Amino acid sequence: MRKKNYNIRLCTTILIGLCLSLLLCTGCSSINMFMAELHVGWGEFHAKSGHYDEAIAEYTRAIEIYPNDLKAYYTRASLYNYLGEYELALTDCNNLENITRYNPNIYTNRAIAYAGLLKYDLAIAEATKAIVFTGNWALPFAIRGMAYSETGQYQLAIEDTNRAIVLDPKYINAYNTRGLSYASLGEYEKALADFNKTIELNEYFTEAYFNRGKVYQELDMKPEAIADFEKFISLSNDPARKDQAQQYIDEMTE
Fold first, then answer.
1. pTM of the model
2. What is the CATH number of domain 118-202?
3. What's domain 28-100's superfamily in CATH?
4. For residue 55, what are the CA distances in angstroms to 37, 58, 59, 70?
5. CA distance 240 to 23
6. What is the pLDDT of residues 65-109, one digit of tens each?
């Protein structure tokens, strides 16, 4: 096993050496691009491992080496969005747009950031730009659908989430958003079907239990509602939302 690992490391070292030799013949810019891609690759590895600070450091190093590295910018922006660092994500998107305007990741990441900042009209505008670039990507449809739902435009939200689900039948957030829109329109059976599907796809998707519990409560199905709120409390890490769920339970058990 040791000999096998040694051979792998040796071959990898030789391959990198050959690549660098070839890049030396083509100039400094190519070397910088190659080294930047190595750092992006390490960044993706750290991100998948949950080491987010290390991932951001690798993406940042890639940008320092090669300031026009598109992937480094949009992967770092995506990670900032995931971490709730929306202003930093917007900065990366703006820098990326200074390099190229023809990348849907710019507008999708910016839409997510604006939605995180509760600037839903701007999120809708950015998601629409992404959809113009690529009409077959579920993510911008789902983002725009969520923003429409948050601004009370429920029919438009349903249309967008329908499209997202056609493109990706296992898109959990799209089912949850559509369920919320149906519930807001009083179409409770359709809402229940979507929340059931959300839970079927991911039994740990906490919001689906809360949302389904609210629908059961509206339908005066108290045992089902209480069970969902209790499940939500057991899974959620949000103290305020857990208190709200407990309040609903107390109201139904008085």
1. 0.83
2. 1.25.40.10
3. Tetratricopeptide repeat domain (1.25.40.10)
4. 13, 5, 6, 16
5. 56
6. 999 888 999 999 999 999 999 999 999 999 999 999 888 999 999
